[in-house]
Amino acid sequence: MDRHDLGASGEIEKTPREAAPDMESEPAAAAARAAERVPPWREQVTARGMVAALLIGVVYTVIVMKLSLTTGLVPTLNVSAALLAFLALRGWTHALHRLGIACRPFTRQENTVVQTCAVACYTIGFGGGFGSFLLGLDKKTYELSGVNTPGNVPGSYKDPGIGWMMGFLLAISFVGLLTLLPLRKAFLCIALLIGDGFYNFLKVILVTLKSIHEKSQRGRLNRVADEDSVAIDDLQRNEVFNRDNIPAWVTYAGYALLSAIAVVAIPLMFREVKWYFVVIAYLLAPVLGFCNAYGTGLTDMNMGYNYGKVALFVFAAWAGKDNGVVAGLVTCGLVKQLVLVSADLMHDFKTAHLTLTSPRSMLVGQAAGTLMGCVVAPLTFFLFYEAFDVGNPDGYWKAPYALIYRNMAILGVEGFSALPQHCLQLCAAFFAFAVLANLARDFLPRRLGRFVPLPMAMAVPFLVGASFAIDMCVGSLVVFLWHWLDGKKAALLIPAVASGLICGDGIWIFPSSLLALAKIKPPMCMKFTPGS
Fold first, then answer.
1. Would you say 350 and 185 are in contact if contact means Cβ atoms under 8 Å apart?
2. Which of 273, 327, 457, 520 is the most exposed place for a label (fewest CB within 10 A)?
3. Which chain regions cross the lipid bilayer (predicted)?
């Protein structure tokens, strides 16, 4: 399962009371699932699984690294990675069985952990900034930006090195795993994703505190209020998911320890980055991480890069002319990695909830994959960096986003005065609109509130283009008509249709990326030009 695909709907709907019999139309199958033994979380993390995840992660890291250093555009490969993980382990166990060698049964939980680990590994390949903010620090990009350009001060560069790159990634990549752990139950089981941004964050904080209070009063696990209306399968998933709780002290202590390491290590690597820059970034991480996780679940698009760009402008302006470029690029990567990883982990927990996988094994798999990626990605990058002319705007390995990010940092050094006229006023107005729209959705009657647009969904087409909006509109129209014609069948079949479309599109990305890696171009190309 694709971690993003599982959260694409943005909201988790509970089964209505009258629809419960439809959800349990196969009592024998439901009983079989209920009787299925769920292995302990330590048995879900296996040595063969980690080896398979490493091999898949290396292959996909090479693919995404090549794409990020050429076009700069990396598609989502999660579906094909999940399929490859399943085929690899299923083939391995089947081959051993044919040879008469006894081996551990292959379970859905092991497959989920392997998928999570492999995706976490290759995500560092494009999320680590090797084709954007990290490469924007090197001397070649510094010279391409113009050595006499105001703000691009002499010496504001740092050439790539395996040592400091590994250290930087290790310092920033693990904290995001702990950012949203205290909210994971609310995110998955209470189904409160009905707001947007900071409004949504504050609302979930309040409901989480209320849930903790109710749990202490009742002395039992936190569940949705109308538990009797939930299908048996959902009750089993909730029970298994809550069984292996991650202690709160582990979350808070780990976050504090890893943050302290980053506060000390990053200023030692980059003298332009002050320690309090890192502290501010880590204090904002939970809020920004939640906003990004909500947007990713709603739109199936991880917007971590956009949060990083905002941080780039803010910290570049704060650091001033002499230190702004390097400070902006480094803090951009710091904030981006925090919100990117936390959103991915929330979707991994949703996958765990659906497949009866322990959240502890998922956290271990994500951490193991991140550790693999912090080693594999810099080594892979240097294979390309030493073998090819990376960063040459006239060559094949253009790495276009490295120059773009550096120029954004140079622009950010000038502060808010560099922004277009009335830009800040428009930002404030649309921020207020987002809050008011969410208030309207919450307090209007449901028959009226459902027509209020979601600001997060409205914002995405401005960033990625109109094609996304057209796709969403067509899909929404089909769903609306299907519900209008036959609501009961639509409720059962729409998830299956959506899964088929997502998997088909995702699986094709892998052979498409291999063709691009081999520099094979399509036999013909069609484009539209304006009429004379």
1. no
2. 520
3. 45-67, 73-92, 113-135, 162-181, 188-209, 246-268, 275-295, 324-343, 363-385, 418-439, 460-485, 491-517
Task: Tell me if 131 sits within 8 A of 137, measured CB to CB.
Answer: no
pLDDT of 372 strictly over 60: yes
435 compared with 232, residue with greater pLDDT: 435
For the residues 351-363, what does the mean pLDDT come to?
83
**Span 417-436, mean pLDDT?**
76
HSE-up of residue 182 (Cα within 13 Å, Cβ side):
21
Q: Are 61 and 376 in contact (CB under 8 A)?
A: yes
Torsion, CA 198, CA 203, CA 207, CA 208, rounded to 10: 0
- The DSSP secondary-structure symbol of 17 reads G
What is the rounded distance in angstroms from the CA atom of residue 57 to the CA atom of residue 119? 7
Pairwise CA distance, residues 462 & 381, whole Å:
31
Q: How far is CA 422 from CA 419, 425, 435, 436, in A?
A: 8, 5, 20, 21
pLDDT bracket for residue 412 (50, 70, 90): confident
- What is the rounded CA–CA span in Å between residue 186 and residue 404? 38
Q: What is the mean pLDDT of residues 38-67?
A: 88
- Write down the pTM of the prediction: 0.73
- Distance between CA 311 and CA 305 in Å, rounded? 10
Of the candidate ranges 73-82, 219-228, 237-246, the one whose mean pLDDT is the lowest: 219-228
Whether residue 11 is predicted with pLDDT greater than 50 in this model: the reply is no
Helices then strands, each counted (H, E), the chain: 22, 0
Distance CA 135, CA 129 (A): 7
What one-letter code names the amino acid at 264? V
Which residue in 374, 363, 181, 196 sits closest to 292, CA to CA?
196
Whole-angstrom Cα distance, residue 518 to residue 23? 47
- C-alpha 331 chain-centroid distance: 18
User: Reduced to 3 states, what is the DSSP secondary structure of residue 100?
Assistant: coil
Which has more confidence, 264 or 179? 264
173 closest CA partner among 377, 381, 323, 387: 377
C-alpha span between 342 and 345 (Å, rounded):
5
